[in-house]
Known about the structure:
alpha/beta; 9-stranded mixed sheet; 16% helix
Amino acid sequence: MSFHLSDYDYPLPQELIAQRPLPRREDSRMMVLRRDGQTIEHRKFTDLPSLLVPGDLFVLNDTRVVPARKFSDGDAIEFLFIERLGPLRWKCLAKPARKMRLGATVKIDNVTARVEEILGEGERVISLSEDVDLYAGGSMPLPPYLHRESDANDETRYQTVYAQTPGAIAAPTAGLHFTQEILNAVPHAFVTLHVGTGTFRPVHSEDIREHHMHPERFSISAEAADKIDKARRMVAVGTTSVRVLESARRENGRLIAQTGMTDIFIFPPHKFQYVDLLFTNFHLPRSTLLMLVSAFAGREFLLKAYEEATRERYRFYSYGDCMLIL
């Protein structure tokens, strides 16, 4: 194991970062990692149901991405609405943040926004003179490595087919591969974790143990808790589902319906209590997501798989290919 940030790095040619989704969700390639024999297979996502055994349960995050990226009137300031703090108060990311000093005001859709508090890393608490409809004129908050503005296609494709509960500022991207038909073919349960800035906040400390995640809200229904308790093996779809399962409270050994906040940061040598298989995408170097998957697969084995994925020209990141770790 390693706690050094530099040990979670890998080289990646820029052309392997998928800038747009494939025409069909289910056409992604899927790398299969078998931890017991340290073997790697190259499959298709549509092979996924054939790799299950009776009693397996897919656990998916049904959060819905809010088109929460808006610009001030005149386009001088970009706002990413992160979290509603009150009827007319929001936590936002502002760009350029230096222009949004304490007390500064701008108009958004002709509504006055005033900076009430300055937080770290470009975050601001703003008050609005009246509510702003994020679904009217807002755009999808695409990751910066896509190097483009969102368009009408992203409104559908940067959203899982089972997205239900609005509140995320980024998609749980492992779920983007699923069609309704494939979802119907596998046993599954839904949990909710609203993806916020904590998931993608860069790790700045060389000793990764010094990094702290921002809290994110999650919930588990009574129906989902019952399904999860009865499953033989848990197949977590995406790192957000892992974080819910590993954070959730149990009573007398049983998962209970609950809502709460989690700031769990999973890195080697985390001992997984409730996740047996992991389905995920390929993640950024030096990211908390890569560290979580390293804890599950083993850092050296995972980085070997990433090397092979690069040689085999897999597509990386949100709109890229996928990986199943057995």
